[in-house]
Amino acid sequence: MASRARHGGQAIDGRDLKGKAVISGLGLTEMGRIYGHSGGWFAAEAIRLAIDDAGLEKTDIDGLLVNQGMTPLPGMGGVDLQNQLGLTNLRLLSSMNVGGATAGIMVQYAALAVSHGMANHVLCVFADAPLREGRGGGAAYGGGGQQPQPRGMRGLYTAFGMFGVNARYAMAASRHMGMYGTTNDHFGAIAVAQRGWAAMNPLAQQREAMTLEDYHASRWVAEPLHLFDCCLVSNGGVAVIVSSAEGARDRKQPPVYIWGMGQGHPGDLNRAGWDIETQTGAPLSKERAFSMAGIEIDDIDVCQLYDCYTYTVLVTLEDYGFCAKGEGGPFVADGKLGPGGSLPTNTGGGQLSGYYMWGMTPLAEGVIQARGQGGDRQASKHDVVLVSGNGGILDHHCTLVLSPHPA
Amino acid sequence: MPEEHGWTEVATLVSDRDYDLPIPVADEASEPFYAGAKEGRLMLLRCSQCGRYRLPGRGRCVDCWSEQSEWAQASGRGKLYSFGIMHQKYHPAFAEVTPYNYALVELEEGPRLITNIVDCPNEELRTDMPVEAVFDAVSEETTLIRFRPRATG
Questions:
Q1: Which residues does residue B44 pair with via DSSP β-bridges, in sequence order?
Q2: Is B55 on the interface with A (CB under 8 A)?
Q3: φ and ψ at A22, to 5 degrees?
Q4: Which of A27, A337, A341, B88 could be A49's S-S partner, Cβ–Cβ 3.0 to 4.6 Å?
Q5: Is residue B73 part of a domain?
Q6: Within a domain: residue B115?
Q7: Residue pairs between chains A and B whose CB atoms are closer than 8 Å
Q8: What single string gives the DSSP state of each residue in A141-152?
Q9: Average pLDDT in the A200-214 region?
Q10: How far apart are CA A236 and CA A351, in angstroms?
């Protein structure tokens, strides 16, 4: 454990921030192959639903943080969305992008703002509409990194055929397999567990039963990744409202308290001795988030772990210390992440089987579970909910610790 | 030419095959890297201040932040840090060769280089296997640096 920063002789662990901010509203649009709408429409719709969910008026909103997906939302810093919605007294407005870590990180900056009086109710929104009728999901996201006329060192990606995010995560998973003997059976156990949860989530895109045999039968995308190792592609929007704990008292929904927050951005030196592929920013992120929340790993009841790929879940479990480094495969193999298991994880189906809203997928399900509104898939114990975000090629990690209790 | 490791003679494969895959060309920052490859040398930048190696295109040493560097010949030896087998047909030119491997090789000098592994069936690729550079002349102008398994004594 790295030493805590000190200031004026006092250890800085962020403990005074615990429970100061809450998530007071959640808005989820329909998800998946929903055609005919722009990303901006999904964003506006998610915001409308979140304000209604929180029991607030649009004039109560004085902060807006925007994370656009693959389909751009026009206007610098989110101003176009602001103007579409007639939000005229914003004390906070920015567009942000740290990939799949953005949602959690937006909530963190919003929590700091409302905890210190800079704003009262900050909307954080993600929306995307990359799917078009008659076009596969791969066409929406795949194949990045191609240069029509490859040049310089970047041109080597095109020359050697290393295209898209799939290729990069496949290499990370492959490294883990080579170092620790992790297998596709292990990755498959994660896919199967999450599909089990998705069956109980009305919003999930993939709800039909999946076996380990089905997993192995799914086609290769980039070995060692099968199709069922990869997240879905979705049209949709999600918004959450972050308020001060006082400002959210006696509202329509039970408040979800933010107990802990952290980030880890380890950087990639791309040279000997550096192994971001198997050692992510999660430990750095966890350290401050858990000290702020005053919890240990055994206190976690429910996990919502960023799952762009099955492998991301596996390496995140290791890096939080649920098991030792390298033992993530055997750890998940018994199905403990799935329904009835000892560590309910990605209980809405996650991004593998639920819907792909970047960091909003784990965050939204974390809010639902903390509130106790998960219906058939509700975890019986949900006092401490861990939510992680991951952006880039394991470049960015963020942690939120959520709870229905103030402290 | 700097002779840090001595010049290991490696056969240059002058390709007479039809080569239909994308062929990259040098930009200003990578010109000595591409020129070196054409002569059968793997060229890296070496920090003039602290001596650490880095890939071309990085103006500043990440360790000491010096902007001074010189070109230095690498040994061409390394190990297979990781790899994948691409099945998705993202680029039409690769359709014929799919599935193919792509790899990240960790050079003896430290930096990791994107490449393909040749002279090895995909199913025999292993993390950390020793590899050595093969200089593959894919056009008059461009030689690509691929790697093949290296026998170790």
A1: B72
A2: yes
A3: -135, 160
A4: A27
A5: yes
A6: yes
A7: 131
A8: HTTTT--SS-BT
A9: 97
A10: 13
The yes-or-no verdict on residue B81 having pLDDT over 50 is yes
**Are residues A178 and B56, on separate chains, in Cβ contact within 8 Å?**
no
Question: What total of structural domains would you count in chain B?
Answer: 1
Q: Residue A249: what pLDDT?
A: 82
- The Cα–Cα gap between B142 and B37 comes to 8
Q: Is the pLDDT of residue A368 over 90?
A: yes
Is the CB of A223 less than 8 angstroms away from the CB of B94?
A: no
**Interchain CB contact of A11 with B (< 8 Å):** no
Tell me, what's the pLDDT at B12?
Answer: 47
Q: What is the mean pLDDT of chain A?
A: 94
As a whole number of angstroms, the distance between CA A399 and CA A254 comes to: 21
The string of pLDDT tens digits covering residues A114-129 is: 999 999 999 999 999 9
Average pLDDT over residues B9-32: 78
- Given a contact cutoff of 8 angstroms between Cβ atoms, the answer to whether A270 and B111 are in contact is yes
Determine which one of A109, A157, A306, A311 is catalytic.
A306
Q: Is A222 at the interface with chain B, CB within 8 A?
A: yes
Task: Please state, in angstroms and as integers, the Cα–Cα distance from residue A281 to each residue in A286, A320, A352, following that order.
Answer: 9, 10, 22
- Is domain A10-128 in CATH 2.60.40.3200, yes or no? no
